[in-house]
Design brief:
By secondary structure, the chain is mostly helical. The chain is built from twelve helices and no strands. Helix 1 packs across helix 12 and helix 10 crosses helix 12. The longest helix is centred in the middle third of the chain and has 16 residues. It is globular.
Length: about 230
């Protein structure tokens, strides 16, 4: 069964399963409180907004998105296909982001990417279909699955805040890499998306920062040996 988190009730149920699977999330819940239900629109606009927000502050991403919405009404894949690169650049988009948005629009137009159909797919298969499009990386796919489609098992392993929160909660010597985050979260299936939401809230409190920075880990450093602080 492929679980979803669409409502507050869904989130509460997912968190209850998560705490039962790993008591440390009960500690995180006591410290950080219940994470909010975070949802984005799905479809081209939802996916495009995630691409636009990468590597940018919330304020910068919001300003660029508002300029895009003002320039294109509606802001859909057809408008993106027709849009000229200089106009997109004037809105604030970088060349790589323009290429990615154009590739997404082309994939939708050609039928290679069926965004509405992803709702019916298991998280892993939907992830594969998204990352098959040029410019959509694992982080972008997982954020779309989690916040736009509500897939309860989406796991944005490349998110830096998520990695740091895992280090703190699990008492690891070093921040785990994206590759190392996979095995760490196996015990939390099929509720890894709920674990991500809980860890972002835990990160905000533990680090005394506002907001969970949704940024992928693009480092290519060698994997590090993860050890618990107590030596086990």
């Amino acid at each position: 069964m492929d679980h979803r988190i669409h409502t507050e009730f869904d989130l509460d149920a997912a968190l209850a399963h998560l705490v039962k699977a790993d008591h440390r999330f009960g500690q995180a819940l006591s410290l950080a409180g219940r994470p909010p239900l975070r949802r984005r629109p799905d479809g081209f606009a939802g996916l495009a907004s995630i691409v636009v927000s990468q590597q940018l502050s919330t304020a910068s991403a919001k300003a660029i998105w508002e300029r895009l919405e003002a320039a294109f009404d509606p802001l859909d894949h057809v408008a993106m296909l027709r849009a000229r690169a200089p106009k997109l650049a004037r809105a604030g988009l970088s060349a790589p982001k323009i290429r990615t948005l154009k590739a997404i629009a082309k994939a939708i137009n050609c039928g290679d990417l069926d965004l509405p159909g992803l709702v019916q797919q298991p998280a892993d298969e939907a992830h594969r279909m998204l990352t098959a499009v040029h410019g959509i990386g694992p982080w972008t796919a997982d954020i779309y699955l989690l916040f736009c489609l509500g897939h309860a098992d989406a796991w944005p392993a490349g998110d830096l805040a998520l990695q740091e929160a895992a280090r703190l909660l699990l008492q690891l010597d070093a921040r785990p890499s994206a590759k190392e985050m996979g095995p760490l979260a196996e015990a939390w299936r099929p509720w890894r998306g709920a674990a991500a939401c809980m860890l972002w809230s835990y990160y905000r409190v533990a680090k005394q920062r506002d907001g969970a920075p949704l940024q992928p880990d693009k480092s290519h450093k060698p994997n590090r040996l993860i050890r618990r602080r107590n030596g086990r």
